[in-house]
Amino acid sequence: MAIMGFLAVANAYTMRVCLNIAITQMVRRHAPSQAYEDGSCPGDLDEVVADPTEISGYNWDEETQGIILSAFYYGYIVTHLPGGMLAERFGGKYSLGFGVLSTAVFTLLTPWAVSLGGATGLIILRVLEGLGEGTTFPALNAMLARWAPVSERGRMGSLVFGGAQIGNIAGTYFSGLVIKETGEWQSVFYLFGSIGILWFILWAILCYNDPESHPYISDKEKKYLEEALGRHHNSQPSSIPWKAIFMSVPLWALVCAQIGHDYGYFTMVTDLPKYMTGVLKFDIHRTGTLAALPYAVMWISSILFGWICDKIVKKQWMTVTNARKTFTTIASVGPGICMILASYSGCNTEAVVILFTASMGLMGAFYPGMKVNALDLSSNFAGTIMAIVNGIGAITGIIAPYLVGLLTPDSTLTQWRLVFWITLAVFIVTNLVFVAWASGDEQWWNSSSQDAKKQEVEAATNQSINNEVKL
Question: Where does this polypeptide localize (predicted)?
């Protein structure tokens, strides 16, 4: 389940990010200015002018490109909550499976949509892709709640959600390679759409909603999971306690951390290829290769951080709450500082690549930090919680690419520095909120309605007794 969940996220991200590389070849580019005092880096001007692809393509300005790149997230936000609720009620197998399948089909149709409708056709198709992919994380969270014991959540969560980095690696590297070898940007959409359909076939055959419904699970593993998850998971959850959820302070602290993570992450994922081609003047293959490197490091670091976090919690060196806060802080402050340093490294391409790689590597600490925190708060409503948290956070996927397009009309270093300063500010503010009010403890509303009311009354009674004792 963990491996197929990992591949689900990886496939979802390859189909999401391949456009970030392809769009650099889809648009009409012009020879850079001879003057570099405005903050531009020198490129190979002869190659740029001589290459016929530089005078062909679609005449989309930076603002239009920002709208295209952000269109995916309009649909992505919409299906988060329905996807989470469906996964909790009927299981995550098919809400996830059909979501990825629909995204794969729309990915295959991308070249046709662009040729038929230009920028408008591509925007509409990206919104539809987002609708399909919006179920991914809520459904996976609901399934992890049924498969991952508390002592293994850091590792399983890092493995499954770390598929995003493999997807980014494959999407960026192979997009650059395939476009260079075929000479056609359309080929990347045919490649990743086909792989997505193949994944769905395997998922439908191999994976099931929970251990009880799995026909091939051993009795030993099934018994272990029942004992490990029995007191945390109610197989028949009652109606969703909306009021309690929306009044939960730890939940809103988690939402703030997700906003910070997503803003920084989407800025890097969506616009790093544009930075490399527009500012550093890398060719398409070099862009694909070097843009993939930070995600490879982030994937490795997320697994390492997950192992360290689980060990710390298991050895009781930290409470679950403090562990989540510590790793989230590492993943917020570290990447922001590295981005700023990269922007002030000028045209020193080696230093820039190293700093961006370090930034994404430190961002891997988000996975055992705030990414699995929804499971801590509520295993019974993990899909709904992830839908709320990830859905609100994904709004930054609309804001970040569009804002970058507005702030970098000429794609110069000085313009990009402002982008990274804003990112650092968002990281710091959202992390302070998480550190102040987050929790790693199960919330009282995770139980059934009657049990929850009973626990609420008991908690109020105990508080009154404690107050009387203090008096």
Answer: Membrane
One-letter amino acid for residue 193 of the chain: G
Structure tokens given for 8:
């689900």
pLDDT digits (tens, 9 = 90+) for 88-101: 778 788 889 999 99
Side chain identity at residue 299, one-letter code = W
Structure tokens at 254: 């988690």
Distance of CA 134 to the CA centre of its chain: 11
Residue 3: which region, alpha, beta or left (left: phi > 0; alpha: psi -120 to 50)? alpha
H-type helices in 134-206, by residue range? 136-147, 153-161, 163-182, 186-206
How far is residue 95 from each of residues 88, 103, 201, 418, measured CA to CA in Å?
10, 12, 14, 40
pLDDT at 51 exceeding the cut of 70:
no
The overall pTM is greater than 0.90: no
Residue 373: closest CA among 461, 272, 258: 258
Contact between residue 70 and residue 402 where contact means Cβ atoms under 8 Å apart? yes
Higher-pLDDT residue of 456 and 170 is 170
Report how far apart, in Å, the C-alpha atoms of 391 and of each of 71, 134, 371, 404 are: 15, 8, 13, 21
| Contact partners, residue 228, CB within 8 Å, separation at least 6 | 149, 150, 151
H or E element: which one contains 238?
none
Of the candidates 415, 420, 280, the residue with the CA atom closest to the CA atom of residue 352: 280
- Give every CB contact of residue 53 below 8 A, 6+ residues apart in sequence: 25, 29
Question: What residues form DSSP beta bridges with 58?
Answer: 27
Provide φ and ψ at 27, rounded to 5°: -90, 160
| Residue 256 in tokens | 């703030």
Exposure string for 389-400, b = 16+ CB within 10 A, e = fewer: bbbbbbbbbbbb
